[in-house]
Design goal:
By secondary structure, the chain is of the alpha+beta class. It has helices at 11-16, 36-39, 56-62, 70-74, 124-136; strands at residues 2-4, 20-22, 27-30, 82-88, 95-102, 109-110. The protein has a three-stranded antiparallel β-sheet, with no helix packed on it.
């Protein structure tokens, strides 16, 4: 069976050349064994692409920001980030050097961790906007 793209005004011609209407699926089709030459004009040229599946983390990375206003994005956080000159990140135990963090100076957490899927506090696109505004001193 071949699905056909038959315009309404050509339905009678298509039917006379062997095309059939499927009322359940609401489309025209050529039954198996039909002569392709007769119905070739109605065979769709557009190919249907296979849907792309992405992981939740990939989908998270592609989300647009909820706002482009850094002040509003800052409002999603419980506390204001501070630039830590030196320390250790409480989340990943990496060395922190001139990095924007939240939390006390004794146990800072790098701001970038809030944009991961697990905590889901900031979207990656929002983190970019917020970090640029923090560096520029506009928030």
């Amino acid at each position: 069976m071949i699905v056909l793209d038959v315009p309404y005004n050509e339905r009678d011609l298509a039917k006379s050349l062997g095309a059939r209407w499927n009322p359940d699926k609401k489309h025209w089709y050529a039954p198996d064994g039909s002569q392709i030459a007769k119905i070739a004009d109605w065979i769709p040229t557009k190919t249907i692409e296979k849907p792309v599946t992405i992981s939740p983390s990939e989908a998270w990375e592609m989300l647009p920001p909820r706002s482009n206003d850094p002040s509003r994005i800052l409002g999603f956080l419980k506390e204001r980030p501070a630039k830590v000159k030196y320390g250790f990140c409480s989340m990943c135990d990496s060395t922190v050097h001139d990095t924007w963090c939240i939390g006390s100076t004794r146990t800072p957490c790098e701001l970038r961790h809030l944009a991961h899927l697990d905590p889901g506090i900031l979207r990656p696109s929002e983190l970019t906007i917020l970090l640029a505004a923090l560096e520029a001193g506009t928030v």
